[in-house]
Amino acid sequence: MKKIIATLALVLCFAGVTLAQDELSFERKQAIDSLALEKVRDLSKYIKIVGSKETPFSEANRVIDRAEELFMSDAEIGVSSLGSNQITYYRVRKYFEHLMRLNYDRVEIEWYNIEYVSDLQRQPDGTYVGVITIFQTFRGYDKEGNMVYKDTTKKDITVYVKRKETQIGGRTIGFWDVLLGDMRVKETTNR
Question: Core-most of 5, 37, 41, 138, by most CB within 10 Å?
Fold first, then answer.
């Protein structure tokens, strides 16, 4: 009986250590929130670069590679327009390729009001999940420089925070990694 109690106490002790390592302190959560918002801002820059008709093809491909690194492997980005109620979802690379092929002579894409709408919530597997909302204004121009299309889209970006490990100098180091998930269209207007 004493052996069972001692074993149980040891298991609970290790479980407590594991749980403590997987819990986010207030300071760590703030750092992760900041990193997630920074990744979303980077994505905004990448979209502007690839959307610009002045960006050389080789540079656009380099930027697309960088953008893919921000996302979970199966993430999708939603695309909408005022002329249709349909929302089309593309894998990240396909989204950027679609963006490069848009039939405008000049494209302007601006993001604003980037903010968390849901706090990070711990999932049963230890991953934390949250949602960042952005507003995107898209403008397309013709050869003469006339704006021929404009919309504003509200999008929710799922954020995943996972505990990972890496080897540095023979030591295993644990860290929290932030990856973006699906970017879902919530509303498209002509504002």
Answer: 138
